Amino acid sequence: MKETLDIKLRVLDIIDGTIVDGPGLRTSIYLAGCRHACPGCHNPQSWDFNAGKDVTISEILDHVEDNGFNVTLSGGDPLFQLDAVTALCNELHKMGMTIRVYTGFTYEHVFNDKKMSKILSAADVLVDGPFIESECDTSLLFRGSSNQRLIDLHKTTGLDIVEWED
Ligand code: SF4
Predict the structure, then answer these.
(1) Ligand 1 within 6 A of 91 CB?
(2) Confidence of residue 9 (pLDDT cuts 50, 70, 90)
(3) Where are the alpha helices (H) located in the chain, listed in sequence order?
(4) What distance in angstroms lies between residue 126's CA and the mean position of ligand 1's atoms?
(5) CA of 130 relative to ligand 1 center, distance in Å
(6) How far, in Å, is the centroid of ligand 1 from the Cα of 15?
């Protein structure tokens, strides 16, 4: 357990009380690093894996416990820190928090990647797919382009995807 709590993530920022990354007030944790290079990305500074600072799982849990908000993991792309992010999700679940994970990978890609697919049982909702500028729609809830889906990981079975509904 102590070993898990000592795992470090490279974090760009932690924002409390956000309302744009999922329902209700949330703690949004922005992980450093992304290789998708989506044209029109809102935050290319987040692509740098050395940006931000190291934060342990223990420090994040303390932070989340203090404010009591459910958690969104965004970036960058959290799945480039797969092992640490999965461990963090498991610990957050033990605290009773729900977790949304944003990724530039599609659900199908994640599902078919044996290593990456472990995030699917560690999170509650996956917001998937790259940002596609031609499909950008500012009216969409919690996502930037219409190709991206809010996937309910509890109701989804295999490739039978069920989208999250408020
Ligand atoms: S996945 Fe997100 S952070 Fe990465 S390039 Fe695309 S829009 Fe930017």
Answers:
(1) no
(2) very high
(3) 2-5, 57-67, 82-94, 107-112
(4) 15
(5) 6
(6) 18
pLDDT class for 166, splitting at 50, 70, 90? confident
Q: How far is CA 61 from CA 58, 73, 82, 118, 165, in A?
A: 5, 13, 18, 21, 27
Distance CA 28, CA 4 (A): 21
CA distances from 132 to 45, 98, 128 (A): 18, 27, 12
pLDDT of residue 1: 67
Report angle CA 51, 9, 155 to the nearest 5 degrees: 115
User: DSSP class of residue 129?
Assistant: S
Tell me the pTM: 0.96
Per the CB < 8 A criterion, the answer to whether 54 and 10 are in contact is: yes
Token match 């990305």: residue?
41
